[in-house]
């Protein structure tokens, strides 16, 4: 076919065309382990809808983004983690490398602030 699922890495992971360490899936979102974990618990939550990044969010996406935040806590909690950090990178200059919006969920160790 044609569309983002042919070109976007995270669309391919959502479709199952590329294997992932899936932690959770429903009609709206997909959660999977980061391939290069930066903390004992490090997973990504993505919407199934292709959105380029935080700056691509529209008013109609607001409920979806809220669900991502709510499910971060649910999934981390099932892993026994109650203290966690949520990160969205927007733009290459701050580290965005995949242009399908994703929320990092990091936990299981102490973390400094501000981030480097
Ligand atoms: P960002 O740098 O914020 O765009 O985050 C992209 C994240 O995707 C990085 O933390 C990568 O380690 C992660 N990543 C890249 N490819 C894969 C993959 N195939 N499976 C799981 N995570 C991945």
How would you summarize the topology of this molecule?
Blueprint: H1 4-7, H2 9-15, E1 22-25, E2 29-33, E3 41-47, H3 62-78, E4 84-87, E5 103-107
Antiparallel strand pairs: 1-2, 2-3, 3-5, 4-5
Bound molecules: adenosine monophosphate.
Which structural traits does this protein have?
116 residues; alpha+beta; 5-stranded antiparallel β-sheet; 5 strands; 24% helix; globular; binds adenosine monophosphate
What does this structure look like?
This protein is of the alpha+beta class and 116 residues long. It is built from three helices and five strands. It has helices at 4-7, 9-15, 62-78, and strands at residues 22-25, 29-33, 41-47, 84-87, 103-107. It has a five-stranded antiparallel sheet, with helices on one face. Strand 2 and strand 3 form a beta hairpin. The longest helix has 17 residues, at 62-78. The model has no long low-confidence stretch (mean pLDDT 97). The chain binds adenosine monophosphate (AMP). Adenosine monophosphate is lined by residues 9, 18, 20, 32, 34-36, 89, 95-98, 102.
Quick synopsis:
By secondary structure, the protein is of the alpha+beta class. The protein is built from three helices and five strands.
């Amino acid at each position: 076919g044609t569309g983002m699922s042919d070109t976007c890495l995270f669309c391919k992971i959502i479709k199952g065309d590329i294997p992932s360490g899936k932690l959770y899936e429903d009609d709206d979102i997909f959660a999977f382990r980061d391939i290069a974990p930066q903390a004992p618990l490090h997973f990504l939550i993505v919407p199934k809808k292709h959105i380029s990044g935080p700056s691509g969010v529209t008013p109609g996406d607001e409920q979806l983004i809220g669900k991502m935040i709510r499910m971060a806590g649910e999934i981390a909690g099932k892993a026994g983690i109650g203290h966690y950090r949520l990160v969205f990178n927007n733009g290459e200059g701050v580290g965005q490398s995949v242009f399908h919006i994703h929320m990092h969920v990091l936990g299981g160790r102490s973390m400094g602030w501000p981030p480097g």
